[in-house]
Amino acid sequence: MSNQNTSTGYLVVSVSTARTAIPLENALVTVYSISDTGSYELIYNVRTNRSGQTAPLPLPAPPVSNSLSPNQPFPYARYSVRVDYDGFYPVTSSDLTIFPDIVATLPVFLVPLEEFQNTGEPQVRNFPNHGLNTTKE
Fold it and tell me: InterPro entries given for it (predicted)?
């Protein structure tokens, strides 16, 4: 994680079955930071509540000043989230962007495993380039 992450952003993960039919209590949510070199560092291992949500998770983010003028470092921090729940395919969401002083909500919809299947390949969601014009120092 960059040493320039001196502010805090927040992430709430909301886990349910497909099409938000049923919130999933006690789903395992694992959050990793992604460094500038692409390495992952474990930040949180938490469980969802009765509503299928995590508490707001504070995450290091760059200062707001990074987004106020050109030629500043990236105005966001990058994270990856994996969600596991027995009987469902795991889901990994990569390259989430967290901005300072903002609460981001990540909806995760889990699909049940097929009958007699114990585990499944994780479904991976990569977030496309957000189109921000930024320059790294």
Answer: Transthyretin/HIU_hydrolase_sf
